[in-house]
Structure formats: structure tokens, C-alpha cells
Structures
1.
Amino acid sequence: MSDIFIAGGWFMWPLLACSITIISISIERFWMLQERLVSPSGLDKQVLNLIDRDLLDDYQERAISDISSLGDLLITVHKYKELSRDLLESKLEEKSIEIKYKLERNLSMLGVVSTISPLLGLLGTVVGMITVFSTFQSSGAASPDLLASGISQALITTAFGLMIAVPGLILHRHFEQKVNKLMILLQSKTSSFIDNF
């Protein structure tokens, strides 16, 4: 494997950096987009219970807001409870945009890295092909075996670029769908909370 990596030339190093970036972002997003962290079950009932017993102070509001995205939305509802339903929903929409931005953290980077990986691989191949043909042009003799060997080495970067890009794009799409699903869940729980408030 190391021989193949070395044969790919210096373009393999940026491709390695791309693969490490994709793996790092994916692990972080798999952890942070867990439903239990974004929308803990029973949190809405706990907050309603605290409000009913008049035990929700500033410290607890901050703690609940920090614990999860759902907590942040529920505290926003409590904070603006005196407003009309339309104004309250407007405040919640602003907060939802902020939460969605947090949930989508690093996804644009994941998309960019997944998109540029095959382009870097292709660039490595083009540079490799130029090198192969310029070598044959200067030597004056073009052996089919040497030509095939040079082309196969040049194509290594394209293969690695595609091997990085395909899973990266799949993961990017998966996380986008996960964020949309979580936002729908948050909206549903918040609407239910407002109705019971």
C-alpha cells in the first residue's frame, strides 16, 4: 500500500489530508447529531414541570438552553411567553435558523473536500501524464511497457481521489438528511410544548 502511495507522487499528500478531514468531520457529526443530544426525550415534560412549580430560575434556564437544541427552543418559548402566537413563532423561527446553522457545522467543509478530492486526483493524473510523455519525448524512445507503467502510476491519484470523494459525498448527503429530520423533530416537540404551555 505504501508503494502505491509513493508511486502516486506528491499529490497523494493533499489527498491524504482530504481523507483525514472527511473522517474527522464525519466522526464529529455522527456524535453531535445524535437524537439524544439534540432532542432529549422527556425534556419538554421536565421544563413544563419546572414552570408549573415555579422553579425555573435564570440559572436553570441557561443550563437547559446549553444542554440541547430542544432546550434552547423551549427556553425561548418561556422567555417570550407574553407575546402573541405570531410574534412567538417569529422568535422561534429566528432561533431555529441559529440552531440549524449549529447542526450544519462543518457540513459545508465536508462537501467542499468531497468535491475537490477527485479534482485533485485528476490534476495529479494530468501532471503525471505530462511527466511521462515529456520523459519519452526527451529520450526519443517510447517502449509500450514503460508507457503503460507511467500511465498506471499517473492514474493512482485519480483512483484515490474518487475513493475519497464517493464516501464523502454519501456522508454529506446523509448528514444533511439527518439535520432536516432533527429540525422536523424539534419543530414538532416545540409546537407540542406551546400547545401544553
Note: The chain has a mean pLDDT of 89.
2.
Amino acid sequence: MNLVIQSPHAISDSHLRPLAALARSRATQRADDTLLRLVDADPLQRPDIDAYCGAHALDYAYVEPNAKLADFGLVAMDMDSTLITIECIDEIADFCGLKAEVAAITEASMRGEIKDFNESLTRRVALLKGLDASALERVYDERLKLSPGAERMLEGARAAGLKTLLVSGGFTFFTERLKARLGLDYTRANTLEIVDGKLTGKVVGDIVNADEKARTLVDTCAKIGIDPKRAIAMGDGSNDLKMMAEAGLSVAFRAKPVVRQSASVAFNFVGLDGLLRLF
């Protein structure tokens, strides 16, 4: 395997020899100041590489030597804390003075401590009852920011011929705006019920939980005529694990420990465009 080492900052030459020795690699290639490729690295050395890279704020990934981004046909992304930097429901709750309470439930759910995502979402949405729907617009306009490298990653994926899917346990209010803004091909999310300009504290229709995320990835692959193993899935929370398990390549982005441990690749420091630099 090739071992790709990335950093948002220049990687010092002092890392070259220790990494090559730990990886048992026969050659080191420096693509630029922020990327190293170690040729013929031994994947059994992963624990040592993981410890070294964690200590030095480096991201690493084992990649097949001839792998290309164009080998894939779909990149599927979670929204909250993956494509964007915020958890939308936490920011909505801030407008009714309940951010801390809602954020605590969100965090426990994403870490896998609350096993029933439906219950977690239902509890949080119920706390929003009576809030003026204009708060959604304010969250989008004032607080929603794309994660570092998001637009570059999407441009690179499209250039390589991949379709794009945004699949979220969050809300259509945000996914539909991001679809239009970023030119995404497909989206799937929950719909907040709004009556007379106010949130009712309910979700309309089936909840997009872990099973539904996985099903959406598989169905989208069928729609575009590819095997799910030709999909890339990116996420950060426990409700992304089933979707990531269906994909051929899974990327944990600044993710909870349970997700980092299960993913093919974890980006803890670089942006989403780190995906392009693996190949």
C-alpha cells in the first residue's frame, strides 16, 4: 500500500526518516510541503503510524498504489459537522434559549451514547415547538459555514466524474439551499413541520436515521448504475456508520472516536479536500 501523510501546515523534513522507518516503506515522495507519499508501506504498522501521526497532528491514509478518484462514482456526505461546521438543530435551539440542552442530546447521540436516533431527534425537535420559522433563515444566513476544503473537494469530485449526495439527519431547509448553492446532485433529510409560520415541534414523514442514510446511499448507487463499493461516504457521527459501511471508502471527518475507529480514513486536521490528495 501507499501511505499518504497530510497536514494543513508544512510537514517538517524531521518527520521523513521516522515515518519511513515506522511504515517500513522503501521510498518517500514529497508531493508538496503538506503531503508525503510513502511507497510500499506495510499496513500492519498502522498502530505505530496512528500513534506517531496523532502525536504530531498529521493525517494518514493507506491507499492502493493505482487507486484513482475516478474509480468511484459517488461521494455521499453527512451535512452537520461534516459538509458544514455547525449542528443546525443546536443553532436553531439557541433562538429559544435551549442550545445547551439540545447540544447535549446531539453530542450524546453522535457519540453513540443514545442508541435510538429517532428518539434523540424527536426529543430535540419537540423543544423547538412555537419557535418562529424565521430562525431557520437566520441560522442559514448568519451561522452556517462550509467546512474547510468543501468546495474544492466537490469541484474535484465532479471533475473526476462523481455524482454528489448530501444525506442528513438534519433538515431539508438547509440541505435544499446547499443543493442549489453547491450544485449537488441528490439530497435526503428530515422535514420540519411549520404551521402559521411557527415550528410545531414535529418532523413530517419518516425520520432519516442511520438505516435510512445507508438505504439512501444504496438506492442512489442503483439509480446511477454503480455498485455501492464505488461510493465514498463521509461523516462524523454514529448515525453515519451504517452508510459508511456500505461504501467502498469511508472518511471520518473530525469525527467522534467510534467513527474514526471504523472508517477507512480519518481526517482530523486537514480539510475535506484531503480526499482529492489521497489519489
Note: The domain at 1-66 is CATH 3.30.70 (Alpha-Beta Plaits).
